[in-house]
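Data availability (excerpt). The following record was deposited with the supplementary files.
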Amino acid sequence: MVLNAPFAGVPTGAGVAKKTHSRSSRALVSTLPLRKIDHLSRFLNGGSVRKPESLVPCSVVSGSPGVETSEVIPDPLDGVLVYDLNGNETPISDLWKDRKAVVAFARHFGCVLCRKRADYLAAYKEKMDAAGVALVLIGPGSVDQARTFSEQTKFKGEVYADPKYSSYQALRFVSGVSTTFTPGSGLKIVQAYLEGYRQDWGLSFEEDTRTRGGWQQGGIIVAGPGNNISYLHKDKEAGDDPDIEGILEACCSQGN
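Predicted structure:
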């Protein structure tokens, strides 16, 4: 049964770094265990992947552990630009080039469940700060929408807009009615409203969100420094928050 938009909390409507691997230089976009190569499929196609203790470098695209090759493999995030609250553009990889960052990808800036997720992560910002880890939220939409979201939520981290949805496409985050209207997401929306969170219907029904982003799902990554993604969670449905312990282990545990 398709729920109406006000209840569902959504609007109606609608691999690796591009470098040459050599003995002196290897592009690390992800680090995956050799003995559990099935993590590769989960990394690209869904679920949560975090970096275990015993790892070897592994190509996200080819799945070949630490193989030296002259093949040039395109980075799916290469060329993806995001925009800060002042409208300044930056390559998304610069957000974690010189630091480690927890990066949350919102469904859209009006989403009630994304506002709850922002608080969910911000509750651990002191621990992230102590470990030198940045907290970042990216949303599909305009800079104006991002600015409104930041003002409304008082989010403690950095906020960026991805108006072309490029990062969502590059990371293969799922989208669709079937991932938005689920029994689980419906219960989470009700719970969020009972906790005092509210959907911003003005943002939700702006044309770009209504026609393109209403069914978009997001995720969370832990990335950096450099071309290294040590944790990736892809939402399987709206409100699919991962366990915080996995995120903190990837971003803040000693040795990670």
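Summary of structural features: Residues 183-194 form the longest helix (12 residues).
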